[in-house]
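cron nightly-structures :: item 1 of 1
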Amino acid sequence: MAYDQVPITFPPVYSTNFITYLLHRHIAPTTLIICSSRETFLADLQTAIQHTHPQEPSAPPEALHPLLIPTLQLLAISRTVHLAFTPTLPHLRAYLSTYVPPDGATTGALSYKMPRRNPTLALLNSISLHRSTTEHSAQGLSHTLAIGVEAANRAEMQLIIAESRKIDDSDSSVDVDLGGSRPWIDYWREQVPLLSCSIGFGVDKRVSTGRTVEIGSVLRRWCRFAQLEEGNGVEEVEKSWSVTFID
């Protein structure tokens, strides 16, 4: 596998920041697989916009979140970004197993600034999709990751895996950016059973038996750990996004 095809995974990020990053690194055809229903995703997106980009009713149009401003650049890039919604784990696995990248040449207003690389196959909230199932285990996660890696390798695309950062009252003490270690340390250190058969469901909650392993250990077998960083672009009005590997 070529180095630029090695899958990477990010700590939980706001969905708005992840989408902005995908648009910035876009090389057609980019595919974003959202592991939820369309309604759930739009609600999460709206919440993230309100949290990271609060706006007063009397604020001018330029105060809008950049994703809400229909610039020519954004419109041109979004035409070659393909969305897929997989609200259940069987939907996700079936989609990846039969995935064929859409036709598309390297286009986009930002492409000329970026080095040559593979298009992106991105999964948003694929880990969370396992939580309410008996597949929320090292075995189940590895099965899904293997299907995703195979799909990206077959299509010669870069697989990127991310989870939406949840917004709650505790976020008020965390900087509204891509930093902050508290949310993602817990995520990578979450324990799951080794085998799917070790998971049962009691009256009120899921019951796990047997040995457990950290989610981060499962991901490390397939992915490199990375963190998004935000900086100033060549032009003052633009954002540039880079990836720092932390494994």
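cron nightly-structures :: done
The first helix runs from residue 15 to 24.
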